[in-house]
């Protein structure tokens, strides 16, 4: 297991009666980006807090960069960076004050801490913030400073807990860009997100988590295949004909999803070409006019809904 | 790893104790930086006890049961009361800190665990020392004259700061137990009667028997009496042939805070460690 930056085996964590982590397993290879995808309350943040030594798990084995998080917490802390859901900054101080303080607490020494703070402010476009207190920063600036603070020691492993929640598209693109350049530098990233697009864009591998357990993992493509492969989308001209068209699709009626607002029918298919030609012919014979017909891979949204529904049932 | 080696090398120099002290100093500097950011808040904190002193000295005045000059009686009482009220400012500050995300970053860093608490206590003790100096200055201005040697004067200041130190750890512990800012208000309301159920403004002999007894055993009263003793002020131990508690105020003024620290310091430190549970 020398190649894994994060190793999680059978981890359990209860809050009173509530099971937050229920036998979770996870292996993250060095230098990769691993996405942890799950609904609210699935246990994503609890997992990150355990990995960041902020929370002690009840059972199981957790190693980060080869160090046990319980018995060698300080060794782990030297090697990790954490970007949580809420800014972990002293909001009453300025950006430079924050970074210099954290640098000293990482034991860089006074001079080195000052130089490092300057470098990071420059790199994240915060060099001109002066003495302005962090609480007066915009959301995007705050998130960039938070990320800078997570990178003071160039950590081996970086945790990003829903890093773009609450950011506008520009802020999101900025964070994504920063993550990509980190990974190019060899950092291992564990990313939790509710945005499937984010996992699809950034992650080499994805673990889908629900009820404190991993219910599926693999690359985005592997996960998409697991849900039954391709889908056919049909957009009708007249929403009134949606009901009649459902029966014409080459799938069980229960598997067809109907979106009335977009006049859209969507269904899983086994054989791409047969489904396409068959559907076109059936609609033509029934006199139902289609605006668009396409066969495509499932989105991660569909994979996700499919997987989480499976567990609930 | 190549990018890291430089920073890791830099971080292994120095002894563990050296780094622990450096962390505590960094966290103390953080609190002082907050003062620089909020000078008005700092000034208000310093002026408030002065206002109380002037209010009781001139407006409410009187001093039931006091033989001698009331200002000489009042000033040492106000000094002790100010130390006792420090409990709520500590609790408020710790509660606010614990509810900030920055605590997560501190706890995920390889720094000394208790440095956050040490920074808080150093800053609070410094603030209290400033507050004492200001109150003593204002006391002089309104005619208070301690009849004490320099050594006795320093001993009195030491006892006052010892009481403040005990209040500090009670405040930190309460903040961790209560956890939420709403709870601070409840404690703030409770601190007042406890502060006033003391001999800060009036002698216990002037109160109904049961109340006087409770007041005499209030740790704050012990400090106030012992400090009056050292300052040679009215209301000192034995000046009115009083109870055991008053007779032994000097001993109690040392023992009470030490007992409180012995109880609340480990509780608070344990609570801080238990944040990870």
UniProtKB/TrEMBL annotation, chain A:
Regions that span the bilayer: none
A Gene Ontology molecular function term of the record: ABC-type xenobiotic transporter activity
Annotated Gene Ontology cellular component terms: plasma membrane
Membrane topology: Peripheral membrane protein
Pfam families: ABC_tran (PF00005)
SUPFAM superfamilies, A to Z: P-loop containing nucleoside triphosphate hydrolases
The protein's enzyme class: translocase
Signal sequence annotation: none
BP term (GO), one: daunorubicin transport
E.C. code: 7.6.2.2
Domain ABC transporter residues, every copy: 6-236
SMART domains recorded: AAA (SM00382)
Localization of this protein: Cell membrane
Family: Belongs to the ABC transporter superfamily. Drug exporter-1 (DrugE1) (TC 3.A.1.105) family.
Name listed for the protein in its UniProt record: ABC-type xenobiotic transporter
Source species: Streptomyces himalayensis subsp. himalayensis
TrEMBL record, chain B:
Any one GO MF annotation of this record: ABC-type transporter activity
Membrane topology: Multi-pass membrane protein
GO cellular component: ATP-binding cassette (ABC) transporter complex
Keyword tags: Antibiotic resistance, Cell membrane, Membrane, Transmembrane, Transmembrane helix, Transport
Domain ABC transmembrane type-2: 40-275
Pfam families: ABC2_membrane
Superkingdom of this protein's organism: Bacteria
Keyword hit for Nucleotide-binding: no
Annotated compartments: Cell membrane; Membrane
Transmembrane segments: 39-61, 73-94, 115-142, 148-172, 249-269
Record flagged with keyword Methyltransferase: no
GO BP annotations listed: response to antibiotic
Family stated for the protein in its record: Belongs to the ABC-2 integral membrane protein family.
Protein name: Transport permease protein
Species per Swiss-Prot/TrEMBL record: Streptomyces himalayensis subsp. himalayensis
């Amino acid at each position: 297991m020398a190649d894994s930056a994060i190793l999680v085996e059978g981890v359990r964590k209860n809050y009173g009666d509530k099971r937050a982590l229920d036998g979770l397993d996870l292996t993250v290879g060095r230098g990769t980006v691993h996405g942890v995808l799950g609904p609210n309350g699935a246990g994503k943040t609890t997992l990150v807090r355990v990995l960041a030594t902020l929370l002690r798990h009840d059972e199981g084995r957790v190693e980060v960069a080869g160090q046990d998080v319980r018995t060698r917490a300080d060794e782990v802390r030297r090697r990790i960076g954490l970007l949580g859901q809420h800014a972990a900054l002293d909001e009453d101080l300025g950006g430079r004050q924050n970074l210099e303080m954290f640098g000293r607490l990482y034991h860089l020494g006074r001079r080195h801490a000052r130089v490092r703070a300057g470098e990071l402010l420059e790199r994240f476009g915060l060099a001109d913030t002066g003495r302005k207190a962090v609480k007066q920063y915009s959301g995007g600036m705050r998130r960039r400073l938070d990320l800078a603070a997570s990178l003071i020691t160039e950590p081996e492993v970086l945790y990003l807990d829903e890093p773009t929640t609450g950011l506008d598209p520009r802020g999101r693109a900025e964070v994504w860009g920063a993550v990509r350049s980190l990974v190019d530098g060899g950092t291992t990233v564990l990313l939790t997100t509710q945005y499937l697009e984010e996992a699809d864009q950034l992650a080499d591998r994805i673990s889908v988590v629900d009820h404190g357990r991993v219910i599926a993992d693999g690359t985005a493509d592997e996960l998409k295949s697991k849900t039954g492969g391709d889908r056919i989308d049909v957009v009708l001209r007249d929403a009134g004909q949606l009901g009649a068209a459902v029966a014409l699709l080459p799938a069980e009626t229960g598997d067809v999803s109907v979106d009335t607002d977009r006049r859209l029918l969507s269904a899983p298919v086994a054989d791409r070409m047969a489904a396409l030609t068959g559907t076109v012919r059936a609609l033509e014979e029934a006199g139902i006019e289609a605006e668009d017909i396409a066969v495509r891979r499932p989105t991660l949204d569909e994979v996700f809904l499919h997987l989480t529904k499976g567990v609930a049932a | 790893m190549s990018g890291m080696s430089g920073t890791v090398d830099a971080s292994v120099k120095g002894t563990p104790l050296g780094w622990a002290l450096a962390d505590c100093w960094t966290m103390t500097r953080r609190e002082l930086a907050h003062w620089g950011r909020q000078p008005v808040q700092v000034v208000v904190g310093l002026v408030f006890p002065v206002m109380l002193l002037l209010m009781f000295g001139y407006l409410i005045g009187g001093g039931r049961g006091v033989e001698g000059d009331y200002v000489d009686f009042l000033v040492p009482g106000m000094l002790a009361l100010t130390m006792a009220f420090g409990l709520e400012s500590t609790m408020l500050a710790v509660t606010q800190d614990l509810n900030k995300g920055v605590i997560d970053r501190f706890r995920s860093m390889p720094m000394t665990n208790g440095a956050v608490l040490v920074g808080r206590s150093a800053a609070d003790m410094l603030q209290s020392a400033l507050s004492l100096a200001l109150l003593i200055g204002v006391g002089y201005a309104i005619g208070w004259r301690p009849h004490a040697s320099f050594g006795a004067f320093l001993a009195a200041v030491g006892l006052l700061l010892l009481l403040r130190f005990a209040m500090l750890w009670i405040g930190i512990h309460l903040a961790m137990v209560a956890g939420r800012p709403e709870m601070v208000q409840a404690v703030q309301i409770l601190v007042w009667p406890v502060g006033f159920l003391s001999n800060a403004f009036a002698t216990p002999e002037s109160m109904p028997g049961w109340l006087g007894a409770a007041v005499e055993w209030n740790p704050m009263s012990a400090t106030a009496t012992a400090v009056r003793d050292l300052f040679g002020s009215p209301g000192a131990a034995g000046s009115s042939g009083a109870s055991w508690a008053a007779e032994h105020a000097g001993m109690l003024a040392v023992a009470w805070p030490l007992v409180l620290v012995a109880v609340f310091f480990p509780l608070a430190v344990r609570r801080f460690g238990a944040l990870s549970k």
